[in-house]
Every structure is written in structure tokens, then in C-alpha cells.
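hiii, so i know i said id send this last week but things got crazy w the move. better late than never?? heres the sequnce for the chain we talked about at the cafe, plus the structure i predicted for it. fair warning i was half asleep when i ran it
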Amino acid sequence: MNTKIVVLFISILSAIFTLSSFVKNPQQKEKPQQEKGKEKPATVKESKDKTKVVADTLKSRVAVDFQETDTLQIDPNSKLKVYKKNAHASYYHNKFNGRRTASGRRFDNNKYTAAHKKLPFGTIVKVTNEANGKSVVVEITDRGPFSKVREIDLSRRAFMDITSNKNSGVVIVKIEVVEEKK
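okay and structure toks below
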């Protein structure tokens, strides 16, 4: 029974792949067709230019990927003031996505934000997992958590960046406030 399902799945995937190769992208411009036998040979200069364009494109893609996965940017020379050690950190549930925070901004679980009971809105905080040393920089945009035990609520993305066990809901962290330059 399992082999029949696998064979059926593979045949469906190959049919989808075959059909997708015939469908044209409406945003893609058609290339003018050249007559057979009259193809223009590429010169050395053109091939170098093409290589340069490909290299530049790859560099920009790498830069974009890096920015998407990186935390909030802080100045490397900025001072960090320890706010609390051995603090319990948890993360927001997905049901809060799109809702307004106490600061008035819309919450997004894919951004680097956090909720704290006392720190002012807009405060940049570095949160470090004490068990594995991973850290993330977040901005305080909300009030909470409304539990006496927990100190800070992180967005899901920020929490998953610092935790070792993706199934845990709470980690012990060190909270450091990033002080602005004067």
C-alpha cells in the first residue's frame, strides 16, 4: 500500500513539473528568436561582463538573505547595561499576529520585538540565552508578560533564534539594555 502511494505521489509531482515548464510567466518578456546557424558568438569581454553581473547578483542575494535573518542592528561601540540576570523569557502566541500592541504598533511574530512590564517603548534590549550563549537584539513595543514569573515576552522569531530546544516555551535569559551614545 505504501509503495503505491509513493509511486502515485512521484507521478503527480512529475506531472506538475512537466506542466509548469510549459506555462509562461506573464511578467517574463519573450526573447526574440534568432535564426538557426546565425547565433552570435560571445566575445571574451561579453563573457567577463556576464560573469561580473552574475557575481554582483549573487552578492546582493547573499546580503539580502543576511539582513532577513539578522537581528536588529546596533552600534558595536554602544554600551550594554545589565538589566536582569536569570530572567524567564517566553514568546507570543500566533493569535496575537496583526493585533495592536500597547505602543500602538501592529504586532508581527516575524519581527524582532518584545514586551516588558517596565521598560519604555522603543528601548533596544539584548536578550542572551544563558544556557547556550545565543543572543538577539529586540525593541520593546508592548506591555507584559502578565505573569509574575516571566520577565519578558519575545516575538516567536526572536525566541526561536536563541533557544536550543524549539519545543520549549520558556528560557532563562540575561537582559541588557543598549544605552544610546551621548
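btw The beta strands are 79-91, 113-116, 124-129, 135-142, 152-154, 171-179. thought thatd interest u
miss u guys!!
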